[in-house]
Amino acid sequence: MTDAVSSGGSDDRRPTPRDPDTPVPELRASDADRERVAEVLRDALAEGRLDMEEFEERLEATYTARTYGDLAPITRDLPGAGVTVPPVSLRKEPAPSGPWAERILGGAGSSTGAVAVMSGFQRKGRWTMPKRFTCFAFWGGGEIDLREAYFADREVEINCVAIMGGVNIIVPPGVEVVVRGMGVMGGFDQREDGVPGEPGAPRVVVTGFAFWGGVSVERKLTRAERQRLKEERRQEKLDRKAARRELRGSGEEGLLDRHGAGVEGLLDLHDAHLEALEQHRELMRERRERHEERREAQRERREARREDRDRRRRGDY
Fold first, then answer.
1. What local confidence, expressed as pLDDT, does residue 142 receive?
2. Strands 113-117 and 150-151
3. Closest CA to 119 of 103, 98, 135
4. Among candidates 230, 124, 130, 220, which has minimal Cα distance to 175?
5. Per residue in 219-230, pLDDT tens?
6. What is the pTM of this model?
7. Higher model confidence: residue 292 or residue 43?
8. 204 and 176 Cβ atoms separated by less than 8 Å
9. How far is it, in rounded angstroms, from Cα 138 to Cα 117?
10. Residue 100 · residue 119 · CB < 8 Å
């Protein structure tokens, strides 16, 4: 008896234990197993993950399956019970890289609101625009300048209430603006509404109410950017002049030899005309830039006077 027990109970022939919840592909599937797979397919059809044709194909394969190996591929690309499906974002997310990525910081903003009652307010420079900024202007005005601002989110909202007052919003080029405010004997500026934004740029949504007042939205470059573009135009002008001089000194040399000073006079006249036209364009650009700078200076002086009046009313000095 001892020999019989030892020969039949050898460790080399002992079966390896396995997890009872993990089916072996070669094992036969039961009707209950096929029904569980069919239930997953019905849920996928109801959620729109499968169309009717694909649902019918998979259902037929389910009821004809014999083993777990036949059932496994049918629901391999479908979420099962207890599986959390990752949410799909319906909002435009910031680009992982690019000029706007470093300006969308997340977190809280530097200031969440402003009030101007017979006075004014101003938000400009290097500040962080929150997800929602609320401002109120009554017999006063305010300015929200986002040209150098950082943003707490990909989409921010400016809620403006202007009663016999006004709010001016300045955005840089590339930012998308959506205007949803309502005006009664007043209005919201719609000129920048619907202009497509750059990839990764934030979206600014302007909402609120204006009664005998207004909310304006304008798109402007910073002074540093305007100066940079001005220098680039100046350099391009110098490059064009140098190219024309080089062309006249090389390719036109034979033409002048054949036709004499008459052609040279025409070329001089043509160059003078081009130069005068470029000078006129540059003059018009400079006038527009000076006009913008004067408007900004006047707005800053008005804001300073309003703040001075407020301090006098409060008796700060």
1. 92
2. unpaired
3. 135
4. 220
5. 988 777 777 877
6. 0.49
7. 43
8. yes
9. 5
10. no
Cβ contacts of residue 194 below 8 Å, gap of 6+?
A: 178
Single out the residue of 305, 97, 74, 53 nearest to residue 199, CA to CA: 97
CA distance 228 to 204: 26
pLDDT given at position 157 = 94
Average pLDDT of the segment spanning 157-180: 92
Neighbours of 288 (CB within 10 A): 11
Distance of alpha carbon 71 from alpha carbon 61, whole angstroms:
8
Give the C-alpha separation, 178 to 156, whole Å: 10
Give the β-pairing of 182-184 and 203-211. parallel
